[in-house]
Design a protein that fits this description.
Blueprint: H1 14-21, E1 31-34, H2 43-52, H3 56-88, E2 93-97, H4 116-140, E3 143-145, H5 148-151, H6 180-195
Parallel strand pairs: 1-2, 2-3
Helix pairs in contact: 1-3, 2-3, 3-4
C-alpha cells in the first residue's frame, strides 16, 4: 500500500522547503516531487508589476532583474535544496518539476492584456528558471519534468482551453498557477510518464 504526503505550500522559497518540507521526508521515502525557485526571485512581484504598469520597459526591466537573481542566487540555493532532499531521502526517485510558460505570443488577451513584449519577457523568465532547475537537477542525479511542451498549447491568451489561471484579484494565490486541467492533463500526465 502506498501513502502520500502533501507538503507543498504556495509561496514557498528554497529556505522554506529546507526548513519545513524536507523534514517530512524519511529514509523510506520512494518518490519526491519538488518545484521551487520562482518565489526566491520574486516572480510574483514581477508578475504583479507587469500587470499594474502601463510601461513595457518597466515590466521588462523587472523580469531581467529576476532572471539575474535566478542565475546568481537561485542556482546555489537549488543545489543546496536538492542536496538536502537527497540526504533526507537517500533512495527516493526525485522529480524536479519545472514551470510552464504563461503566455502565447501573438494570442489574444483582450484589451487589458499584457503586450507581446511583456509576454515574451515573462516566458523568457520561465525558460531561465527551467534551465537552472534542469541543470541543478541533473547534477543531483534527479529527473527534470519539463512541462512546457504540454502546457504551451494551453497558455494564457491561446484562445483554447487554458491550463493556467489568469489574474484573479479575489484569489490572488491561485493567479498564474496551473488550474485543475493543468494539474491533471499537464503535470500529472507528465509525472505518470516518468514514474510509470
Amino acid at each position: 500500500m502506498s501513502a502520500f504526503v502533501e507538503a507543498s505550500c504556495s509561496g514557498a522559497t528554497t529556505a522554506d522547503v529546507v526548513s519545513t518540507q524536507i523534514p517530512q521526508l524519511t529514509a523510506d521515502t520512494t518518490l519526491v516531487t519538488v518545484q521551487v525557485g520562482g518565489n526566491d526571485v520574486g516572480f510574483v512581484d514581477v508578475l504583479t508589476n507587469c500587470i499594474l504598469t502601463i510601461d513595457d520597459a518597466d515590466c521588462i526591466a523587472g523580469v531581467e532583474l529576476a532572471k539575474q537573481a535566478a542565475q546568481g542566487a537561485l542556482s546555489p540555493a537549488l543545489a543546496q535544496t536538492y542536496g538536502a532532499v537527497r540526504a533526507a531521502a537517500p533512495s527516493a526517485k526525485v522529480v524536479v518539476v519545472g514551470y510552464p510558460r504563461l503566455y502565447k505570443i501573438g494570442g489574444s488577451c483582450g484589451i487589458f492584456g499584457l503586450s507581446d513584449a511583456e509576454r515574451s519577457a515573462m516566458n523568457s523568465a520561465a525558460d531561465v528558471l527551467n534551465d537552472i532547475m534542469a541543470s541543478r537537477a541533473a547534477e543531483a542525479g534527479f529527473t527534470f519534468l519539463d512541462p512546457r511542451p504540454a502546457f504551451d498549447p494551453h497558455a494564457l491568451c491561446s484562445g483554447g482551453s487554458e491550463w493556467v489561471t489568469s489574474l484573479e484579484w479575489d484569489k490572488i494565490n491561485e493567479s498564474y498557477h496551473p488550474n485543475a486541467a493543468g494539474h491533471r492533463d499537464g503535470y500529472l500526465a507528465a509525472l505518470n510518464s516518468i514514474t510509470g
